[in-house]
Design a protein that fits this description.
The structure holds two protein chains of two kinds.
Chain A (H helix, E strand, L loop, with lengths): L2 H6 L7 H21 L4 H32 L3 H39 L1 H7 L2 E9 L8 E3 L12 E4 L2 E9 L4 E5 L6 E6 L5 E5 L2 H4 L4 E7 L10 E4 L11 E10 L5 E8 L8 E5 L12
Antiparallel strand pairs in A: 1-2, 1-12, 2-5, 3-4, 3-12, 4-5, 6-7, 6-9, 7-8, 8-11, 9-10, 10-11
Chain B lengths: L7 H21 L1 H4 L9 H13 L1 H19 L5 H15 L10 H24 L6 H45 L1
Helix pairs in contact in B: 1-3, 1-4, 1-7, 3-4, 3-5, 3-6, 3-7, 4-5, 5-6, 6-7
Classes of the chains: A alpha+beta, B mainly alpha.
Chain lengths: ~290, ~180
């Protein structure tokens, strides 16, 4: 083909503004579709899961080793100073330990009463590692390295150590997206352990800064709930299994309606340094009457 | 559209994808672990902005659309929201390609700062303001400004890198054309 012939062929070009318009419409359609259905999520999740998750896993491993390296670089001087301090601490601790051992008897008795410990152990759990965090700064959601292949499904509860972290909202074959309870706009139905009063725990970006989260709608007419009371997931929640510890009450204020109370609570999980979580593969059985 | 896949353009497409891939991965893994004041810089926005500025509106908006869609799939509450925002960022940056002088560094940096400011404000308005959360000053000082500053500092190093790679391709292509002639 000579250059002359080539030049005669008309180039089919679509003006940029039309492409912009078409893609904008695609975006809006996607938004509407994702609001009403979730037909798109499965193929997209599978595809992106296989392409990106292996890389995220790798880079996450690099990050972990870098943190380890940085910790090793502590100077010898610091370590020796620390050693002296620690020796002093050991003396104090041995004294405390004897006292604590007595408390421990009491604790095991109380645990038996609440049957909290036993209840946690009943559930089937699998460990998972956090491999990616929200790329923006608005929410504190994250991605874990286990998915449907490991038996995780949407709405599985996620815990770490002794407390609730959040729940799975989206799942691919080899990864799952977890929305944490401290994320802005996420609500959890909780109850106080001592009195069994229900309340709503709401994540908030504003309060996350000072390490607390909000709760509201606590009906406690007799002022029985006090600062330091345990808050666990409630029996009426349709997503969370009952009795998972959320945190301790930090402050209580009476609302202007004089009927309910609200305030802040301190979560038991250290969300800032979360690296590994446990996923409860069992889902809460809610009667189908309340379905949809 | 069809010219996208001929000659030099295929190189641009590959380079664009490479940078977006790296940006998203770094942003969601390493950079969100080594945060400064719990803030992650928006690398993807730098890439989309740079691609728009250096390669034009079409590249900017398509790369923004794809990059935004990936963010949506992994972290979005609604599919398509970030895709729309990143796409507009790429398109608007592409408009400024005509007024960019080869050695100019102030305009790209100003555009990245402006893009990030606009992007953060759009996020705040769409996800918080419309929900009835009017603590604008809090979000401005705690999230938006730190992110813009952090992103700008990263952009000072990251933008020249992207520019260098794209310049190399252009230079190489010109050399090939000269030898053919």
């Amino acid at each position: 083909m000579s250059p002359l012939v080539k030049r005669k062929r008309e180039r089919i070009t679509i003006p940029n503004r039309y492409i912009l318009l078409i893609l904008s419409i695609v975006c809006v359609v996607l938004m509407i579709l994702s609001f009403s259905t979730n037909i798109l999520s499965t193929p997209l999740n599978t595809m992106s899961g296989y392409v990106l998750v292996p890389f995220q896993k790798g880079l996450n491993a690099v990050g972990t080793s870098l943190i380890d390296r940085a910790q090793n670089l502590k100077t010898l001087e610091e370590v020796t100073n620390e050693n002296e301090e620690l020796k002093k601490q050991i003396e104090d601790l041995t004294r405390d330990n004897t006292l604590l051992q007595q408390d421990k008897y009491e604790l095991t008795k109380l645990r038996e009463l609440y049957e909290l410990d036993a209840e946690y152990e009943q559930y089937d759990k699998i460990g998972a590692r956090i491999i990616a965090r929200d790329s923006g700064n608005w929410y504190s959601d994250f991605i874990i390295d286990k998915g449907t292949n490991d038996g995780i499904s949407v709405d599985c509860n996620v815990i770490a150590g002794s407390g609730l972290v959040g729940r799975v909202t989206d799942v691919g074959p080899n990864y799952a997206k977890v929305i944490s309870i401290i994320s802005d706009n996420s609500n959890t139905s909780g109850m106080t352990l001592s009195t069994g009063d229900n309340l709503i725990v709401t994540g908030s970006l504003k309060l996350m800064d000072i390490g607390v989260i909000e709760y509201s709608q606590l009906a406690d007419p007799d002022d029985q709930v006090g600062v330091g009371d345990k808050v666990v997931t409630s029996n009426i929640s349709d997503k969370y299994l009952q009795g998972i510890l959320i945190g301790y009450i930090d402050s209580i204020n009476t609302d202007s309606n004089n009927l309910t109370k609200s305030g802040t609570l301190i979560p038991v999980v250290d969300f800032r340094h979360l690296e590994e979580v446990l996923v409860i593969t069992e889902l809460k059985n809610v009667p189908s009457v309340y379905g949809d | 559209m069809f010219r996208l896949f001929t000659g030099i353009r295929i190189m641009y497409v590959l380079v664009t994808f490479f940078f977006m891939f790296i940006s998203f991965l770094l942003q969601s893994t390493l950079l969100s672990r080594f945060t400064i004041g719990d803030i992650t810089p928006n690398l993807l926005l730098i890439t989309v902005s740079a691609v728009g500025l250096l390669l034009g509106r079409r590249f900017g908006m398509i790369s923004g659309f794809i990059g935004g869609l990936i963010v949506d799939i992994f972290f979005g509450r609604i599919l398509g929201l970030y895709a729309l925002l990143y796409m507009l960022t790429g398109y608007i940056n592409g408009v400024f390609r005509k007024v960019l002088f080869p050695g100019d560094f102030k305009l790209p940096l100003a555009l990245i700062v402006g893009s990030d400011l606009a992007f953060c404000h759009a996020c705040y308005i769409l996800m918080f303001f419309l929900k009835g959360d009017f603590h604008y000053v809090f979000y401005l000082t705690k999230i938006i400004l730190p992110e813009v500053i952090y992103t700008t500092i990263i952009a000072i190093f990251y933008f020249p890198l992207i520019k260098y790679v794209i310049d190399r391709i252009q230079y190489h292509e010109q050399k090939v054309e000269e030898t053919v002639e």
